Amino acid sequence: MDCEQTSPSHSWVFPTVILCLFGFFSMMKPSEPFFVPYLAGPDKNMSLSVITRDILPLWTYSYLALLLPVFVITDYVCYKPVVILQGISFIVTWILLVFGQGLVAMQVLEFSYGMVSATEVAYYAYIYSVVSPEHYQKVSSYCRSITLVAYTVASVLAQVLVSLANVSYFYLNVISLASVSVAFLFTLFLPMPKKGMFFHAKSKDASKKPSGKDIVLDEPRKDQQPDSQESVTISGPANGSQLSNPKPKNVILRVFTQWCQDLKECYSSKCLFYWSLWWTFSTAGFNQVLNYVQILWDYKAPSQSSTIYNGAVEALATFGGAMAAFSVGYVKVNWNVYGELALGILSAADAGSLYLMRYTTNIWVCYAGLLIFKSSYMFLITIATFQIAVNLSMERYALVFGINTFIALVIQTIMTVIVVDNQGLGLPVSVQMKNHRERIGGLLFRGLSTSRKASLYTFNVKCSLFLHVIH
Does the predicted model carry a pTM greater than 0.90? Predict the structure, then answer.
């Protein structure tokens, strides 16, 4: 399958502007902070137990099932069709939210939103295939920051409309439907990329380039002081070795073979492996908490009988997370030396905020706990992302983060099946807490440094918060 050529008249500015406009309107959804109150309210009339056990888990399952196929197809069809598919999935999701009734409609909705999440990879990868490498940093910051701005604006707008104008949650979803429809229209104007990162590689490009970029990851030697480091060199895809070694004729099999070789070389570095380990566990817990935190809020302060401020809290948490992530670029620290210390300290703060959310009876303290939790996570995940990707080629960057995301989803799915799903083990909460957190957690903790124990401890705390919420 050949990709169309991008018109020479298209500079890096045009696709960046179109992609940013799509990102803004796709995230400009004021209904999201009030998703659970909307389902539990008179419009859908769902109980919290049904929402928790029969609706929300479908997002995790569909996201996991779709991620790997979409990851492969995205590069094969050159990104734009998958970005369009994401726009269509957004529309289907909010049409069901506005007009759908009954449990089955809400479950289909969650599957559709799983497709939205799985196809998000195309949004962030598209730009690298249509702009030159010298613009990567600039356009990446534009695309990521515009989504944070849009989510913050949407959350503030939602809170203002609910608190001051007394607008019902139904009309927030109508506004969201209109916004994602506009976002879909912008996807049609995206120029088609010339080629993908893995498929459709041109042989003449390979002949012009030397063997793949080497990456150097530093690790302390066991027999030296922490500031003494050894260089572990991981080579990128070497075109020379590809020419000398026989490759499968089938392009898909050849790409998968290369992926396996790349992953083996990347994860052979202990530094990259440990940062990836923290990334996967922390991301699994973060997604799980965000997926169910509105259930916790509704339990602490029922939306039917209390004034809720979900929109304001989501806006502040997103803004705080954005500022924390932005500050990483200006903190002059040798992360190779102090990275694990930062993980340990902020993971402890992360864990403390979750315990605070669990045991407090004050909804405002619960809100504050999320602000601390999200800001700490955003700060740490930015460091982890940088440490993993700092010297990776773009191909390996996409591959490693795709696999890390998949593993995080596997962890999240296992936790959901065991704890939430009616088809799971159905163990009492107290038994789950003791066995899952102490036995499994104890096995994971053996042989890890203090900071890595703190990171995994944070994940277990997230599990415990989740157990208490559904209980």
Answer: no
